[in-house]
């Protein structure tokens, strides 16, 4: 009886581990075999006049969604330095700001990207602030 109880508990624990690991993939995120996007996000211009001492662009921290066709396949957040990394299978995608981040910008913006067949595809994303 003790062995049956232990086997039942072990089965439940293993099933719980399996379900939480699948949650870590995010909303429909397509996991690549070491492929995806990695890079930096910038916003600009950040002021009407740019000089050597006052650059036009700045790192941008925000939330983003990755679309493949009409399906959201991943979400990611860039950090305070604008850095991001997201695992994706090779293919063509569109990266756009999530709804909360988009509300900070005057225009709806997205960028088409291509994930290569090996390694992380290096990418710089730039979003227009509308400042002129």
Walk me through this protein's architecture.
This protein has helices at 2-23, 99-102, and strands spanning 36-44, 58-59, 63-68, 71-77, 83-87, 91-97, 110-115, 120-128. The protein is an alpha+beta fold. The chain has one domain: Sandwich (Immunoglobulin-like).
Mean pLDDT: 79
Uncertain residue segments: 1-29
Strand elements, count: 8
Oligomer: single chain
Relative helix content:
10-25%
How would a textbook summarize the main sheet? 4 strands, mixed
Q: Might you state the CATH topology name?
A: Immunoglobulin-like
Give the class-level CATH name: Mainly Beta
What is the approximate shape? globular
Q: What is the CATH architecture assignment? A: Sandwich
Task: Output the structural class.
Answer: alpha+beta
Fourth-level CATH superfamily: Immunoglobulins
Strand content: 35-45%
Total of helices: 2
Q: Indicate the radius of gyration in whole angstroms.
A: 20 Å
Order of helices and strands: HEEEEEEHEE
Number of domains: 1
């Amino acid at each position: 009886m003790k062995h049956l109880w232990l086997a039942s508990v072990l089965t439940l624990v293993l099933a719980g581990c399996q379900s939480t690991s699948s949650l870590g993939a995010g909303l429909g995120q397509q996991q690549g075999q070491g492929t995806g996007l990695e890079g930096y996000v910038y916003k600009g211009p950040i002021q009407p006049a740019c000089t050597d001492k006052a650059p036009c662009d700045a790192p941008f921290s925000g939330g983003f969604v990755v679309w493949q066709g009409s399906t959201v396949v991943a979400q990611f957040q860039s950090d305070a330095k604008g850095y991001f990394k997201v695992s994706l299978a090779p293919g063509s995608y569109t990266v756009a700001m999530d709804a909360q981040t988009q509300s900070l910008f005057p225009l709806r913006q997205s960028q088409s990207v291509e994930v290569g067949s090996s390694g992380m595809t290096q990418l710089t994303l730039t979003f227009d602030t509308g400042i002129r």
